[in-house]
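--- STAGE predict ---
source: upstream dedup step, 1 unique chain passed
mode: sequence only
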Amino acid sequence: MYKRVKLKDTVEVPPEELGDVSPDLVKRLLQDKLEGRMDEEVGSVVSITTVHDIGEGTVLPNRPGVYYEAEFNAVTFDPQMQEVVDGTIVEVVEFGAFVGIGPVDGLLHVSQISDEYLAFDRENQRLASSESDRAIGVEDAVRARIVTKSIDERNPRDSKIGLTAKQPGLGKHGWLAEEFEKREEATAGE
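--- STAGE serialize ---
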């Protein structure tokens, strides 16, 4: 889920920039420091939007820059347990599909996609059923539920988000549309 939050952090302004400590400069320094970083409390910082307040600068011994505490607004992405998310498959591997959900990817394990057995088709980069004509591959849109979440603040790329698509209303968007049409036809025939 995307959120707009008010945060505080400290930035180091290098000596060559001390002549113009403006909100624009502090915003740029905050962007360089925080955007793309994961934090257990706020999630992934997507964008620094506005700097509201810049505190008094502090000089530390043996450090060339001046440190300023700033208060600012940021847009964050914080995936919540049991949240339903829409995403796009970015990679298919033998054990499942990685789904881009905002600035992070979640794993949709092969056992969490369908009740049918899905075989890995390496040549076409997809998982396909031999029981039906259903297949799921790169660039397919899917709806899934977040079932596990392990955030690694030091190495955001090592964070893990587990997804499921085996519940009603979840799965590949094309499959969901087919099921909707079947229900519409069934109710129209009554």
